[in-house]
Amino acid sequence: MQKFSCRIVCEAIRNIIRREEMVKIVTDSTAYLEEDFTRENDIKVVPLKVSFGEKHFIEGVDITTTEFYELLAKSETLPKTSQPSVQDFIDTYKPILEKDNHIISVHISGGLSGTINVANLAKKTLNTEEICIVDSLSTGIIIQFLIEKALELIKHKEDFKHICSSVNAQVKKMLSRFILDDLDYMVKGGRLNKTEALIGSILHVKPIVSFTNGKSKVEGITRIWKEAKTRLLAYAGKINKDIGIEKIGVHCGANIEEGKDFKRMIEGILEIPVVMRQVGSVLGTYGGPKWLGLGMQTK
Fold it and tell me: What percentage of the chain carries pLDDT values higher than 70?
């Protein structure tokens, strides 16, 4: 009778421990999360890197966004970016797993960076199924929206597998579109195909670009920056009318005041709150100092 009681109690204790296992969030520096949001939700950020010649920097660690754009303006050559190492991810994942936690790891599109592949290699090296790696098929504010979905499910104490499948499903609801003042940054960075790059360089246009299946795709062109902004606004209005927008954010480069004005314009049209994010070294390398973008979570 005593042994039976002990078995029941021990099983109950194990069930309590199991229920209290935590799901933690890991992402990379291209999410450009605000420090308060990262700290309050105990999110671990694995940074990408940027190099100006022989000078190497870790995004968000030893180079600020302001410092990056100052260097970009002075540099005669385009900086180069690189993904984190496998060891960078192992060093982030391992302490979390050692506490019997699960991990939702949300990252920049595999079509834009090798980061997601490195994360998968780290998971394989650690020989664990307790890590769910999510390809955002985008970057920036879209990653934040996916993280917010995960946090909502964690708050409601959903199980790890359900959170993993739900966040991956949420990716399909995300849309991104942006306009560039200077196409050269994406061309030199190899983020457009040769045909699109050739057209852009010959016509000197302001391209309207989307992330389609995780890769950059030119959706339209215009020669006037003001018209490009108008078309971006019209696109947001159409999406809101046809599908509905739950969340939306504005990205910008060094043109932060223009970004703030654009945010106000979006809020006036859609009558919903708009998040704004100035992007740093990695996305700034390909977008250049002047660009605007929208990240949307549809209904």
Answer: 87
Q: How many CB atoms lie within 10 A of CB 71?
A: 16
Q: For 224-277, what is each residue's pLDDT tens digit?
A: 999 999 999 999 999 999 999 999 999 999 999 999 999 999 999 999 999 999
**47 with 112, same domain?**
yes
- C-beta of residue 288 within 8 angstroms of C-beta of residue 185: yes
Paired sense of beta strands 80-82 and 55-58, if any: unpaired
The reported pLDDT for the residue numbered 182 is 79
pLDDT number for residue 264 = 97
167-192 pLDDT, tens digit per residue, is 999 999 999 999 998 777 766 655 55
Final residue in a domain of this structure, among 137, 171, 205: 171
The strands making up 102-107's β-sheet, listed across from edge to edge, are 44-46, 23-28, 102-107, 131-135
CB atoms within 10 A of CB 231: 17
- Residue 149 in any domain: the answer is yes
99-148 pLDDT tens trace: 999 999 999 999 999 999 999 999 999 999 999 999 999 999 999 999 99
Q: Which two tokens stand for residue 285?
A: 């390398």
Supply the pTM of this predicted model. Answer: 0.88
Q: Which residues pair with 107 in a beta bridge?
A: 135
d(CA 22, CA 172): 26
Count of the separate structural domains present in the chain: 2
CATH number of the structural domain spanning residue 200: 3.30.1180.10
Tell me which residue range forms the domain holding 234: 173-298
* 163: its two tokens: 């959170």
Based on the fold, state whether residues 137 and 222 are members of the same structural domain: no
**Residue of 206, 289, 293 lying closest to 255 (CA atoms):** 289
